[in-house]
Amino acid sequence: MSNSQSEAHQSALKQFSVSSFEEAVLAVQSGQPPEERAVSLYEQLTPKERLALLHGDIPFWKGRSGIMEFGYNHIPYVMGSNKRLGIPGISFIDGPRGVVVGEATAFPVSMARGASWDVGLEEEIGQAIGLEVRASGGNFFGGVCINLPRHPAWGRIQETYSDQSVLIGEMGAALVRGVKPNAMPCIKHYALNSMENARFDVDVLCDQQTMQEDYLPHFRKAMDAGAASVMCAYNKINGYWASANANLLTEILRDQWGFDGFVISDFVWAIRDAAESLDAGMDLEAPFAQLRADRLPAELESGKVGWDKVETSALRLIATQLCHYAQRPQSEPEPSIIAGQKHRALARKAAEKSMVLLRNEDVDGQPVLPLDEKSLKSIAVLGRLSDLENTGDKGSSNVHASHVVTPLEGIKAALPEASILHADGSDLAAAERLAGEADVAVVVVGYTAAEEGEWVNGRIYARDDLMKLYPDPKTDEERSVLATMLERLEAAKGKPEIGGDRKKLGLLPEAVELIRKMRAANPRCIVVVQTAGAVMITDWYDEVPALVLGWYAGMEGGHALADLLLGRKNFAGRLPYAMAASEDDLPYFDAAATQIVYDRWYGQRKLACDGKEALFPLGFGLSYTEFSINSVHVVEKTQDGLRLSVDVANIGERTGQINLQIYGACSQGPRAGERELLGFALANLKPGERSEISIQSSLQPLSCWDQEGLQFVPPAGEIVIEASQHWGAPAGACTTLKI
Q1: Which of 451, 461, 594, 719 is the most exposed place for a label (fewest CB within 10 A)?
Q2: What are φ and ψ of residue 325, in 5° steps?
Q3: pTM for this one?
C-alpha cells in the first residue's frame, strides 16, 4: 500500500468509526458512500484475512468431497466471508433455469425463454429466482448466462437466449433487474465462450471491432441493468486465459464501461496463475480455497504481484456487498415460496409463451391445430421423451424439481374424459397400432442431457495440466478424497460420456423413423421437438402437418403443451435464431479445436450473406390468428436510437399476441443491405382490434466500432426501417430515415 493510500484510509477511519459490516450497511443506508465504508472495514482486517476475501471459504479437498458425495452446489458456496467483522461474503447459487440448491422451481431453459421475446416475463422470472435464492440461503445468483452462440452445436446453448445480441441483451438485463432486489446478479461467461468440449483449451481469436460489435454489447446491456458481478470464462481470448485477460477484465470492463462490481472466476479450472489473475483484474476465485489460498502468499512475498492489487479487489468485493445489503428488502422470504403455487404458475406461463408453432397444415380441409376438445375422443402420445422428465442438462444449471409434468401427464390432465394411449416407441409395431387407433397422434422427439449440455466428464479432473491447479493434500482425510476421485475416474473408463457439444444436428435415426411410421399410421400427426439449439429437420419436416418446437420446457411444460395444442392458449413463441436448411450453411465448428476465429458471420446474417434461405428464419412462428402491420414511422431519434410508432391489427378470429420485430439496413457503405435486428415489442390483441405500438429501437447494430476512438460510429446516409413479424417477412411495413 502506498503512503498516500494509507493516509487516505486513516483519514476515512477518523471520519467514520465503523466496527462491523452491519454498522457499515446502516451507514450506507443513511447516504454514506459504500466505497468509504469498505475502506474502513478493510483497514480492520489482518493480512491473512484480507487474502481470505479473495477466494472460497471451503477448503479445496473438503469441497471436492462434497461434490462427489452430494452433488454440485447442493448448498450455497460461501466465498470471502469474515466472521469477526460480520462480512457475509458471497453465498453462491447457480442457474439459469432456476435455483440449483434444493428442490426449486424449474423454469424453461433460457433459450426457450428467449423464444418468448418477453422482457417483462423474464423480469418476473428473475424476481421469482431472486426470492428463491434468498430463501435457499444464498445472496448471489450465478445464472445470468448471456454468451452468443455462433454455432447451434454448442452444448450449453440452452443456457443463453438467442444468437442475436439485441435479444440476449434485453433478456439478460431483465433477468438482472428481477434478481437484483434479493440476490447479487452475476453475468457470465465473459467472454467469447460458446464451445463446450474445448473450453479448457481453446484460444478464441477475435479482433476488437468484431468483439465490440457482436460478442460484447449484450454484456454491456446487462451490466448497465445492475449486474453486481461478472464471471470470467474458461477459454483463452487472443492468447490470454479469460481469468488473466487484462484487455477484457480491466481495459474494456472497467476503463471503457465503468463497471464497479467485482469479477468472479468460473469454478476450479478458470484461474491458471494466482498472481496473473489478480494483476489482470480478477477479484474472486471460486468456489473453494484453492490456487490463491495455496500460492498467493508466496507470490506476494516475491513481488510477483503487489498488495495494492489485493486491496483493490477486496474493496470491490466489500463495497458490492454493502450496496446489496443496504438496498435489499428487509423482510425475509418464506421457504414455502420455493416451487410454490405462484412460481409454478409462472413456470407454466413461461412455457406457454416460449413454444413455437413452426407448421400447421390442413388435414381434411382444416388445420390440424388447435385440436377440437368436443370431438376429440382419443390421443396417442408417443416417443421416448413423451413421459420423460426432460428439463435440460445435468450440469451446473440442473434444477432438482420435486416433480416435472411430462407431455403425457399434461395431456392426460387436460383431457380426463378422453382415451389417452401411450407408447415410448421402442416397439414400433405397437406404437403404429396405437397411432392408427387414435383421433390424433402426438409424437415427442428430440434430445436429452445425453446428447447436449454441459460436458460432465470425469476425465477433466485428472488431466495433468489441471491437476497442477489443486493444492497438495496435506492430511490423511484430504489424501483419501484424492484417492477416491482417482478410483472413480478409473471405474468410469470406457463408459459413455454425457453432454457436450452436439455431434449431430439432426434427430436420432430412430426418432425420424418413428415420426414417419406414426405419420403413415395417422394423418393427423403432431410432432413436438424438445431441444435448445437448432435442429436439422429438412429431411422430414414437410411430411408432417403440425410441428411444435417444445424446448426443455421446465417443470410445468406438459401442462403448457396441452393448453397450446387444445387452443386454450395461443402460440406466442418465435424463433430466437434462424434454423438453417443444411449443416453446410453453418459456420465452421470443431468441437476439439485448440484455436478458432470468431468473426461476424454466423446465424441469419451468414445465411443472408451466402445467399442461403433459412428453413425457418429468425423470429418466425405461427399463431392461431393473423396480424397485419399497416404502417411504421419514426417518432424521434433519441440518444440511444429510434422511437418508432407501428400500426398493427389482429385480422383473425382469435385473441393473440403479435411479436413485432424491427429490422434496419444501411443503404450505403460496406454493409449496405445487411438487415439487422434493432428492437422488438409484444402486444396482445383481440379479434379485430387495432393498436398503435410505441417501440424503442437501437441503432448500435448498424454502427461500427472505432478502436482508435473507443466508441461506436453511428451509421450515415439513408437507413431502411422494417416493421415485421420475422426476418425478411414480405408482409410488413417500412420507412426510411436519413442520418
Answers
A1: 594
A2: -70, -25
A3: 0.96
Are the C-beta atoms of 375 and 392 separated by less than 8 Å?
A: no
CATH 3.20.20.300 fits 3-336, yes or no: yes
Q: What is the pLDDT of residue 5?
A: 42
Specify the CATH number of the domain 341-452+501-576: 3.40.50.1700
CB 129 within 8 A of CB 141: yes
Contact (Cβ atoms closer than 8 angstroms) between residue 203 and residue 594:
yes
Grid cell digits, residue 547:
410441428
Take residue 280 and report the three cell numbers written for it. Answer: 489482470
Q: Where are the beta strands (DSSP E) in 203-337?
A: 203-205, 229-232, 236-237, 240-241, 262-264
Maximal C-alpha separation, the chain: 86
Torsion of CA 265, 266, 269, 272, to 10 degrees: -30
Give the strand pairing for 440-446 and 525-530: parallel
Q: Are 622 and 728 in contact (CB under 8 A)?
A: no
Cα angle 28, 32, 34 (rounded to 5 degrees) comes to 60
Distance CA 460, CA 224 (A): 35
- Return the H-helix or E-strand segment holding 680: strand 676-685
CB-based contacts of 419: which residues, under 8 Å, 6+ apart? 377, 378, 379, 438
The helix/strand count (H/E) of the chain reads as 22, 29
pLDDT at 616: 98
Nearest CA to 171 out of 646, 557, 532, 576 is that of 576
pLDDT < 50 regions, the chain = 1-18
Task: Name the phi and psi angles at 625, rounded to 5.
Answer: -130, 180
What DSSP designation does 668 have? Answer: S
Output the nine-digit C-alpha cell for 185.
446478479
Which residues on adjacent β-strands are paired with residue 677?
A: 663
Distances (CA, A) of 197 to 111, 478, 500, 595: 20, 29, 6, 13
**Residue 452: all three cell numbers together:** 447436449
Q: Say what the pLDDT of residue 12 is.
A: 37
Q: What is the pLDDT of residue 8?
A: 41
CA distance 447 to 392: 9
Query: How are strands ordered across the β-sheet holding 627-638?
Result: 627-638, 641-650, 690-698
106 CB neighbour count, 10 Å cutoff: 30
Beta bridge partners of 724: 661
For domain 625-738, which CATH number applies: 2.60.40.10, 2.30.42.10, 3.40.630.30, 2.40.50.840? 2.60.40.10
User: From CA 562, how far away is CA 373, in angstroms rounded?
Assistant: 11
Residues 6+ apart with CB under 8 A from 610: 585
N residues, the chain: 739
The Cα 113–Cα 521 span in angstroms is: 34
- For the chain, how far is it from start to end, CA to CA, in angstroms? 51
